[in-house]
Each structure stands twice: as structure tokens, then as C-alpha cells.
Amino acid sequence: MPKISVKGSSMPESPIRKLVPFAEAAIKKGRKIYQLNIGQPDIKTPDVALDAVRNHTIEVLSYSHSAGFEGYRNKLAGYYQKKNIPVTGEEIIITTGGSEALLFAMGSIADAGDEIIIPEPFYANYNGFAVASGVKIVPVESKIETDFALPPISEFEKLISPKTKAILICNPGNPTGYLYTEEEIKQLADLALKHDIFIVADEVYREFAYDGIQHFSIMSLPQLKDHAIMIDSVSKRYSMCGARIGCLVSKNKEVIATAMKFAQARLSPPTFEQIASEAALETPQSYFDDVIEEYTSRRNLLIEGLKQIEGVKVAVPKGAFYCIAELPIDNADKFAKWLLEDFQMDNETVMVAPAAGFYSTPNTGMNQVRIAYVLKKENLEKAINILKVALKEYNK
Ligand SMILES: Cc1ncc(COP(=O)(O)O)c(C=O)c1O
Predict the structure, then answer these.
(1) Does ligand 1 come within 6 angstroms of the Cβ of 277?
(2) Bridge pairing between strands 115-120 and 164-170
(3) For the CA atoms of the chain, what is the radius of gyration?
(4) Tens digit of each residue's pLDDT (9 = 90 or more) over 174-216
(5) How far is Cα 376 from Cα 122, in angstroms, rounded to an integer?
(6) Is residue 39 lining ligand 1, measured as CB closer than 6 Å?
(7) Which stretches of the chain drop beneath a pLDDT of 50?
């Protein structure tokens, strides 16, 4: 039998999806599952985006430019300019989701064995992208006690080695919901300039900032023109996860020229989805206002509900639509499986994502779960109640 690669065997399983077979078995038993484990929003995709595809009369579904439609890139630059992110269409490469942009970024700045420092817990697929790129992730721990604020800069500094190529942040954070302050971004900028390393900022949740706080982008700092790379996506912004459109943005010409070679190798991003994404830029502000209002009230309901459960500690998210909760259990993996296999309340249960997979330090976050508040309030309320009863029974 021919052998698969070491790289292939090192690819981590997604902590978000690995419980799916247990969920499928529960559904077969006729159980209803409230899915708090996955960041698939239930918000409607804007009509302007869907209509653009419905009304299109393409006759040849041809390749597009490797960097994406020029018209789309220029319009997208206009969106960024309104967000105080002064970029042009030439500084944008359209990718197949933010996922591909992350791969292009890693491929463009790091060689095998190079290191990227990331505050943990972090979006679990960074592990997979790092393995695929041969990059070593060096974690710096952020803590639930501070709502996962930026760790002290001295902690980053301790980890910087000749192999360090970048610091990667997710702002607002998945899975933490933390929104970095302007002050924190400036501290990171000083550090990047001092050590001449890149800052890669994954800003796919930019629009999801609550309590009137303004998101502050890494791209808003002119001193970082050669050091900043932004990752973005339409997946969450317009509830268009299936469109698979994202982008890589940088004012560093060499980064763009290099990422462009990766883009050329895969030819082009998908066509209809670019049409939808370009049209989505016409989405009225009222759509976002309604979405933010909805997520804010879901967040408040969830956090209040979790705080009422004995032994639960939770970080209050200021952005995105996730929170990390520490539960009165010793192993969230076991607990999450038990919820699907052995527990039910009126034939219903909940599915959560064990948080250990969002850390790269072994045995960290073992009693934590990530909860996504992507359910309607009445379902979220039911799910919190199920979790409360389940914890009591689990700890009997
Ligand atoms: C933080 C973060 N970055 C990137 C992605 C990937 O997004 P896309 O669907 O655009 O590939 C996700 C998806 O959940 C995410 O949460």
C-alpha cells in the first residue's frame, strides 16, 4: 500500500466538524439538535446579491482575471475607503474565500520551518493552513479572565526568533469575540516595525462590532504599509458562506506580486460568486444595522443565560458571534460527545465545539467550549436551558 504524506497525517481534524458523525447518529434517532458549534449564520443573504446572479445572462462561464474582476476590486476598494482603509483595487486579490487568502498569505511570507506567532485560542483552521504551508505556529496565550484581550507585548517579544515571519491576529476574534482596541493595534504595529515582521490581520468579522465600538483595522496605520496584510471574506459580512469569495489586501507591492503567482496557479476565483459579491456591496446600511441589533440581543441573552449556570465562566464578546465558556467539567470533548450520544431533554440536545482545538498548546482549554450565537433567540434560550440541565446531570 503506497504511503500518504507526513504532511497529510499531520493535518488536524476540524474541532468544529469532528462531532458531525455523532450528531448524524443522534438525528437518525429522531433527536433535535441546537447547533451552537458552527459559525453558519441564519441571517438572510441580501437580495441585491442573489438577484444579481438570478438576473444574469452569462453564455460562457469563462475564467476571470486571476486577481478577480477589476470592477469588483475597484468597488471593493471603495467599501474599504469608507471604513478608513485607504486601499486601491490593485492592492486587492480576490480569493476563493478568506481561507484561500490565508493560504496565499502564508505561502507568500513564510518558508518551511518559519514561525508565525498567534494569540490563542485562535480560529482552528489556522492550524490546517500552517501544516499545509509548512509553517510553525507559535502560540501566545490570551486569557478568559481578560475577555481574551491582547497578551502583554513582552509575551510576544519573548517568542520572537530569527524564524519569526509574522504575527497573525483575528479581529474581531473567532472564537473569542474579542475586538482589539486602537491602542492594542498600535502596540502590535510598533512591535512589527521594531522586528521587521508582518502583521496578518484576519478581519472577516469587521462588520460585527457591538456596543457602539468602532472596529480599528490594521490597514488604517500608514506606518504599516509594507508590513500589513489583511484577510477578508464575504462569508459572514453578507451571510454568503457558500459563495466562497474573500480577498487578500496589502499595500506591499512585493506581497501582492507574490500572492498573485499563487493566484495565477489556481487560475481564477469563481465567476457567479464574484458577481454576487460585487452586487452585495450595494447592501444598504439598514441591513447591517438590523443584523448588529439582532446579534447584540442574542449575545446579551446568551451571556446572561450562561452566567446564571453554576460553575460557568464566560468572556463577554464585543464582536463576531462566538464566545468561549469555561464549564464545570474536566473534558469538553467527552462532554460534547455525551451531549450527542447519551443526553436528551424532550428529545432535544445541543452541539458545542470543544475549545481545545482552538489552542495549539497541548492540554489547554480542555474545560472550555466555543458557542456560536447563530440561532434565533427562542432557540438560543431553549439551548441554554438544555445546557444547564445537561451540566447538572453530567456532574451527578
Ligand atoms: C476567523 C475566520 N477566518 C477565516 C474564515 C474563512 O472564511 P471563508 O469562508 O471566507 O473561507 C473563517 C470562517 O469561519 C473564520 O472564522
Answers:
(1) no
(2) parallel
(3) 21
(4) 999 999 999 999 999 999 999 999 999 999 999 999 999 999 9
(5) 25
(6) yes
(7) none
Place of cell 445537561: 390
pLDDT at position 219: 98
* Cα–Cα separations (whole angstroms), residue 305 to 298, 310, 325: 10, 11, 12
User: Which residues lie below 8 Å from residue 25, measured CB to CB, with a gap of 6+?
Assistant: 340, 341
Q: Is 64 a pocket residue for ligand 1 (Cβ < 6 Å)?
A: no
Can you give the pLDDT at residue 56? 87
CA of 78 to the centre of ligand 1 (A): 22
User: Does ligand 1 lie within 6 Å of residue 123's CB atom?
Assistant: yes
According to DSSP, residue 285 is labeled H
pLDDT in tens, 234-245: 999 999 999 999
What type of residue is 230? M
Q: Evaluate whether 167 touches 200 at the Cβ level (below 8 Å).
A: yes
Q: Is the minimum distance from the CB of 252 to ligand 1 under 6 angstroms?
A: no
CA 122 – CA 114 distance, rounded (Å):
19
Q: What is the pLDDT of residue 17?
A: 76
Assigned C-alpha cell, 130: 500552517
- What are the helix (H) ranges across the chain? 6-10, 20-28, 47-54, 70-82, 97-109, 125-133, 153-159, 182-195, 253-265, 271-280, 285-307, 332-341, 377-394
Residue 231 backbone dihedrals phi, psi, to 5 degrees: -110, 135
Residue 314 Cα, ligand 1 centroid: separation in angstroms? Answer: 23
The verdict on the CB of residue 170 being under 6 Å from ligand 1 is yes
Interatomic CA distance for residues 146 and 266, integer angstroms:
42
